[in-house]
């Protein structure tokens, strides 16, 4: 099983270019290897914590687990992943998701193997950030030597991790995906990625690092016993392919649209695919949740009447009730022709990832 998180759209920090493409590339390879994928994008701290707990509650004992994070990060004793709501200059440890917290949560599920890949910078905080230097560190209660844990970081301490303009993927993933499908053990795959990276880039600026406390030969292609009932439950959470029938009585028009996870990958984003029959109108969609309403639209292109329209809706995890959508047909943005309401059957909207417990930091 794999939990993949890509943060690229930050509230207070600079946006990143490749993180979601990196998650998508890794998910495609792991899916071919038989992994069950939980992939999400642009999570807040509370959502990262809750998504991790949700994932490891589903993970069966003795499973192989791969965790991948792409986004902003830093190292300050431990390694810290920065959520999309992280402050810019005065962030503290409590504003971020620590690798030790992830490991502690993971070990409660008793996986056979935990592979943790952190694709982020590992520079220490600026000395101007007085808050984090005055903060007391958290002590996590587990003994890593008693568990098989492999940690692979895209760079070394006091180094940055880089993206290149106009590149589809970050530097690490460009090399990692070439080796993931190889019929080798995990340590060999990651060492090969290191060597491949070193041959192509200056290690003075970025040097991937491998830390492994296991000598056991683990292959991502190993056969792992699976419980059919559990697998069915996992698929109900991670699979989404639904056809929704729509009827617009005022204009006497009926058609169907297809609903799926964004790029068949991200659980907290969905794609609504409208067939070309809708291209005679401008389509707007009001997405209604308990406390907010969002509006997306697809504008018709008179040169592409035969193409489907794809409407992508992000941040579904923020929904506090069932997600409903009002689809409107418009001749112009000001001239409404007809509309219809439909409820979207999206599994992640039922997980309350937005919920912050009082004891949760």
Order of helices and strands: EHEHEEEEHEHEHHEHEEEEEEEE
For the record, the count of structural domains works out to: 2
Give the CATH class of the largest domain.
Alpha Beta
Biggest sheet strand line-up:
2-1-3-7-8-9
Structural class: alpha+beta
- Oligomer designation: single chain
> Total number of β-strand segments?
17
The CATH topology annotation of the largest domain reads as Rossmann fold
Percent of residues in helices comes to 10-25%
Assign an overall shape. Answer: globular
Mean pLDDT: 88
| Rg result | 22 Å
How much strand content do the residues show? 25-35%
Taking the sheet with the most strands, its summary is:
6 strands, mixed
Task: Give the terminus-to-terminus CA distance.
Answer: 26 Å
CATH architecture of the largest domain, please? 3-Layer(aba) Sandwich
User: Which segments are poorly predicted (pLDDT under 50) over 5 or more consecutive residues?
Assistant: 291-305
Number of helices, counting only DSSP H or I runs of 4 residues or more: 7
InterPro entries: Caspase-like_dom_sf (IPR029030), Caspase-related_regulators (IPR052039), Pept_C14_caspase (IPR011600), Pept_C14_p20 (IPR001309)
Domain Caspase family p20: 1-75
Pfam families: Peptidase_C14
GO molecular function: cysteine-type endopeptidase activity
């Amino acid at each position: 099983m794999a939990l993949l998180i890509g943060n690229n759209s930050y509230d207070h920090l600079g946006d990143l270019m490749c993180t979601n493409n990196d998650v998508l590339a890794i998910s495609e390879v792991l899916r071919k290897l038989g992994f069950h994928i939980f992939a999400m994008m642009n999570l807040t701290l509370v959502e990262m914590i809750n998504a991790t707990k949700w994932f490891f509650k589903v993970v069966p004992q003795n499973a192989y687990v791969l965790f991948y994070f792409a986004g902003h990060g830093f190292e300050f004793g431990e390694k810290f992943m920065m959520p999309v709501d992280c402050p810019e200059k005065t962030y503290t440890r409590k504003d971020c998701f620590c690798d030790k917290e992830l490991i502690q949560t993971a070990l409660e599920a008793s996986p056979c193997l935990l592979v943790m890949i952190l694709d982020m910078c590992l520079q220490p905080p600026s000395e101007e950030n007085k808050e984090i230097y005055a903060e007391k560190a958290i002590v996590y209660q587990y003994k890593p030597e008693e568990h098989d844990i492999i940690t692979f970081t895209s760079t070394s301490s006091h180094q940055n991790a880089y993206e290149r303009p106009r590149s589809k993927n970050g530097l690490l993933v460009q090399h990692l995906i070439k080796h993931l499908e190889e019929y080798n053990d995990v340590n060999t795959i990651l060492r090969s990625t290191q060597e491949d990276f070193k041959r192509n880039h200056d290690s003075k600026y970025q040097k991937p690092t491998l830390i492994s406390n296991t000598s056991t030969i683990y292959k991502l292609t190993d056969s792992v016993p699976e419980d059919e009932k559990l697998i069915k439950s996992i698929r109900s959470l991670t699979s989404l392919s639904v056809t929704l029938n729509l009827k617009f009585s005022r204009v006497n028009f009926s058609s169907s649209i297809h609903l799926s996870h964004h790029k068949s990958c991200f659980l907290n984003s969905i794609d609504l695919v409208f067939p070309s029959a809708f291209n005679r109108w401008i389509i707007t969609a009001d997405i209604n949740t308990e406390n907010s309403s969002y509006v997306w639209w697809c504008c018709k292109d008179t040169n592409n009447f035969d193409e489907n329209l794809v409407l992508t809706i992000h941040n579904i995890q923020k929904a506090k009730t069932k997600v409903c959508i009002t689809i409107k047909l418009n001749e112009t943005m000001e001239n409404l022709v007809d509309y219809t309401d439909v409820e979207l059957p999206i599994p992640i909207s039922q997980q309350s990832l937005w919920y912050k417990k009082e004891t949760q930091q």
